[in-house]
Amino acid sequence: MSVRTYLKDFVALIFPELCQACGCSLVNGEDMICMNCVYDLPYTNFHQQKDNVVARQFWGRIDLQLVYVLLYFTKGGKVQNMMHQFKYKNMPRIGNRLGEIAGKQLGATPAYQTIDVVIPVPLHPKKLKLRGYNQSDHFAQGLAVKMNIQVDCENLIRLKHTQTQTKKSRFSRYENMKEVFSVKKPEKLAGKHVLLVDDIVTTGSTLEACGIELLKIPGLTLSIAAIAYAE
After folding, report:
1. pTM of the model
2. What is the CATH number of domain 41-230?
3. Per the record's keyword annotation, is Ligase included, yes or no (predicted)?
4. Where in the sequence of the chain do the CATH 3.40.50.2020 domains occur?
């Protein structure tokens, strides 16, 4: 056993790394989520269901090629635990790990082989400065690693710092998101199949607003992916 491994194991005894889903101690080889939870999380399997419930939410709103969500979100469940740590407790690596799990699913699914680039839903600079990171960036990075494609975190930008969407109706959310996003260099995305990613899907108004801007680009094909779906 090397000195580095010995020190790491010693520190782990005093400050054990915990699974961000269930709170149990991680063992060697586990990263952020224990293997029990990796196998037991509430997966949607939407990569196998083109006309899934989230895809149907966007029918008649924007033209999407593929719609994917990794997990179901339920109050008090493991996914809520992870998302709380991810968004509010300075644990961005949770997003990378979940992105890797999602990327493994999508990378093995033929329909997703045509995707050229992953683009995360951007935060406004004020919110980014307050939080310190964009959670969608980290999910996008994990996805891209496993799918062996590029990430573009710079081209799609947020122009307005909008009010919280939590207690708004679907129509109010849509109105709140009008003209919020813009694309700096649309020519870089012309003719590309873009995978737009976010953390949690509820009404889909944020993804819709981003998608409207992206679909103005000639020849662009749009798909979306997210970590969790809250019914």
Report:
1. 0.87
2. 3.40.50.2020
3. no
4. 41-230
Tell me the pLDDT tens digit for each residue of 26-53.
Answer: 998 899 999 999 999 999 999 999 999 9
Encode pLDDT of 166-220 as tens digits.
555 555 555 566 679 999 999 999 999 999 999 999 999 999 999 999 999 999 9
φ/ψ of 125, rounded to 5, equals -50, -35
Q: How many residues does the chain have?
A: 231
Q: Which of 11, 75, 24 is nearest to 230 (CA)?
A: 75
Query: Cα(first)–Cα(last) distance of the chain, in Å?
Result: 49
Q: How far apart are CA 88 and CA 135, in angstroms?
A: 10
DSSP 8-class letter at 43? B
- If you write DSSP's letter for every residue of 59-90 in order, what string do you get? TTTS--S-EEEEEEE-TTSHHHHHHHHHHHTT
